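Same chain as my last thread, 400 residues:
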Amino acid sequence: MHMKGALQGLKVVELAQIMAGPTCGLLLADMGADVIKVEKFPGGDDVRNYREPSIRGESAGFMILNRNKRSLAVNLKAPGGLEVVKRLLADADVVIENYRKGALDKLGLGYDMLSKHNPRLVYCAISGYGRTGPYADKGGFDLIAQGFSGIMSITGTPGGPPVKAGTSVADINAGILAALGIVTALLARAATGRGQLVETSLMEAAIQQTYWQSAMFFATGVSPGPTGSAHALTAPYEAYATRDGWVNVGGANQNNWERIAKVIGRPELVDDVRFLTNSDRIRNLAELTPLVSEKLRERSSAEWIRDFEAAGVPVGPINRIGDMLADPQVAAREMVIEVDHPRAGRTQALGTPLKFSEGGGEVTRPAPLLGQHTREILGQLGYAAAEIAALAQGGAVFLG
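reply #2:
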């Protein structure tokens, strides 16, 4: 029996924009939930206006983060607009929001108010620093979270300036954590019948990425710094230049180190007192790296990958994004898919990283146009055609 999605029948209202909240909504939508994206009107999600790069005039970023969702465009300041959202939330299973603390409470859309009328509601709040503590009122941005969490102090090369991770790790991880929190709360609701408030923040999502480095500080009292591509706790485990490019080589244990030494034609390094154990290799990394590097430069990346793989050593190419997207393994795992968009036409997108033996994780619709489903959703909420027309004429909603 094919399962369309484990979360099918779940009504999720996404009061969020940019990346963290929409990432959460995307994951739930891919698993079958009916995710209604409430967008401000005029304008919509700010990412709609990130037109560089774009696909035939449509924001590439918006399309990849908001597939499988329906768009309801509402002006909360116009008469009737706020009432539309309140009616939408009356029987929602889940709310995702990333407003500043207190903003939705003033509109009567905070957890305390909504849960009184809908006690089964799972309300997920994603903020910059969390809803408690001295920074609770501050806004949040991925770059700021990466700096605050220490990620930028451990990224890059020794002696270089602070460097952010190339991807939005705080935003994306916050969205993943939010989705996990929501599913956990739904599981609890199945047992208790009650919803609850779930929250996370960009700060906490970024801090979670420092497991190794925080462990090192707890053990030594010393803040670790950047190590380039090298690992902080094991060696050799980093990127090496080859004759025609770069490869990653992972000597994450003693057996792999001994295999590496043999493959590069330097078996005597195994018995070198400087490199006998992993602790020795970390302590003498400045001496070890040049010895491995000079050998790797002698041959091509393809040759090294072939020989390291044959010896059982973890190894891999350092791809550009385009290289990665064209890789046959990526295709085999359906991580590049095609979606038909009403304006942009047939476009490519990333597939879902979760696979289920019973099916699920399907892409059933492209990212919506602004207000594309407003009329449909209002009809489902019980608004008559004349009422919908009046709301649109008064500027409370946009019908797409």
